[in-house]
Amino acid sequence: MTALAVEVEPAEVGFDATRLARIDAYLQRYVDEGLLPGYLVAVTRHGRVAHLAIGGWQHVEDRIALQADSLFRIYSMTKPVTSVAAMMLYEQGLFELSTPVSRFIPSFADVRVFAGGSDLKQVTVPATEPVRMGHLLSHTAGLTYGFHRRHPADALYRAAGFEWAYPPGVDLAGACDIWAGVPLLFQPGAEWAYSVATDVLGRVVEVISAQRLDEYFAEHILDPLGMHDTSFGVPAGQADRLARLYLAAPDGMVPGDALGAATLQRTLLSGGAGLVSSAHDYHRFTQLLRRGGELDGVRLLGPRTLAYMTRNHLPGGADLEQFGQPLYAEVPLRGMGFGLGFSVVLDPAWAGTAGNAGEYGWGGAASTAFSIDPVEQTTLLFFTQLLPSSTHPLRTNLRQLVTQALVD
Predict the structure, then answer these.
(1) Which fold is adopted by the domain 10-79+225-405?
(2) Lower CB density within 10 Å: C or N end of the chain?
(3) What is the spatial distance between Cα 245 and Cα 254, in angstroms, rounded to a whole number?
(4) How far is CA 293 from CA 94, 215, 286, 338, in A?
(5) CA separation for the pair 15, 243 (Å, rounded)
C-alpha cells in the first residue's frame, strides 16, 4: 500500500501554484453542494507530481474522508490496461490487427449484422468481413453496450443480463459467446461505437497467453510496475479503503454500491471495466505511457508501438462525431479521434479545449479520468465515484484548469 504524494514545487516544472489551487476550489464546490462524494486529482509534469487535490468523502454517510490511498472502481479506465496487454502480444508477433477474432474465439466466425426490425424480430445480414483484432482495439467491431438504450441490439444485451451488471455464473469466455450471437450494429470497420469490444479483447489475451486475464495482468503488467493495489475486485483485507459508489439523482446523489458490486466480482474478468485501483497505481501506469512504454527500467512496449496506439485510427482522419454512432462515450465526440485503446485530441479548437493535438486518455463510468499531453509532458488523474460520468462537465473543465496553470 503506497499513497501518492507531491514530489516537486509547481514552479519548478512550470506551474503557477495559485492557479493550480483553482482545481481544489472548483471540485470542493461540487462536494459542498452534495453533487460529488469526493475527489482526488493528481497533476504531474515530466513525471513528477506537482499538485495533489484531495477532498470530500470516501463514505459520505459515515463521514469517512477520502484518502490519498483510497481505492476506486475505475471501470473503463481498465480498457487501456487491456489494450496494452494485447499490444504486448502483438509485439511478439502473435497476431496482426487484420487477424480475425474467430481465430481465438470460434463463436465470432459467423457473426451477423442488424439490418432492420426490432429486438424481438430482427432482420440481419451476414458480415461482409470478419471482426478483426484492430476492430476490437478501436471500437469499430459493431459490438455495443446494454446501457446505451439506443439500438435494438442494446436490448438484446440487457435481455441476456448485460447492462450495469453481469449474469450470475457467466465467465468471460461465456460472455463472448453470447455477444457473438447478438447482431452487430454495423458492418465491422464501418463505424465507431463504444462497446464490450475490450472485454472480448481481454478474452483473446487469455486464449493467446493461456492465462486467466487477472494472472496475465499480474505477471506482465501490475507486478512489474509495482501496481500492487490494482486487481479485479478489492485486494484481500483492503475493503475499508474502497470509496463508496454513488448514483446521480435529481436532488444530488444516492448510494449505489449494490449496482457497483458487479465490478468487484471475479467470475467475469472484465477487461473493459473490472479493475479496482489507486491513484498511486494508475499514476505508475500513466507514467509508463508517457515515457513510451518504459518505467524505472521496466519496458512493456516499444515507443513506436505506443506512438502507433495513440494516433487516430479512424478512417480518413475522421473524428468520433463524423465516424461514430450517436451513443455514449467517455469523451466529447467532436474534434476527438480514437486510437488503439485511447481517445486522441485531433483539433483542440474543434474539441473546445486549450490543450494540444495528440493529447490522449480515457475515463470510467464512475467519473474517473486520465489524460496525457505529450507536448507539455503533463498528466492529469481524476478519481471520484459518481455514476454516470456524464452527470457533470468535470473532465473537460479539469483539463482546462491544468492547462491554464501552465505558465512557463
Answers:
(1) Beta-lactamase (3.40.710)
(2) C
(3) 9
(4) 19, 20, 10, 19
(5) 30
**Can you tell me the distance from the alpha carbon of 108 to that of 343, in angstroms, rounded to the nearest whole number?**
26
Which pLDDT score is estimated for 264?
65
Q: Write out the three cell numbers for 241.
A: 479503503
What gap in Å lies between CA 15 and CA 380, rounded to an integer?
13
Helices (H) and strands (E) in the chain, counts: 14, 18
Q: Domain residue spans in the chain?
A: 10-79+225-405, 96-209
Residue 257, phi then psi, degrees to nearest 5: -65, -30
CB 329 within 8 A of CB 76: no
Indicate if the alpha-carbon torsion angle 292, 293, 299, 303 is positive or negative: negative
The pLDDT tens digits of the residues spanning 24-62 come to: 999 999 999 999 999 999 999 999 999 999 999 999 999
Tell me the C-alpha distance between 86 and 274, whole Å. 16
d(CA 339, CA 124): 29
Cβ–Cβ under 8 Å, residues 345 and 360: yes
CATH of segment(s) 96-209: 1.20.58
* Cα 216 to Cα 75, 79, 110, 204, 221, distances in angstroms: 19, 15, 29, 12, 8
Segment 81-121, tens digit of pLDDT:
999 999 999 999 999 999 999 999 999 999 999 999 998 99
* 3-class state of residue 241 by DSSP: helix
Report the C-alpha dihedral over residues 142, 145, 149, 153, rounded to 10 degrees: 50
**Residues with Cβ within 8 Å of residue 295, at least 6 apart in sequence:** 225, 284, 287, 288
Q: Is 52 left (phi over 0), alpha (psi -120 to 50) or beta?
A: beta
Amino acid at 356: N
- Whole-model pTM: value is 0.96
The pLDDT of residue 34 is: 96
In the prediction, which pLDDT does 326 show?
66
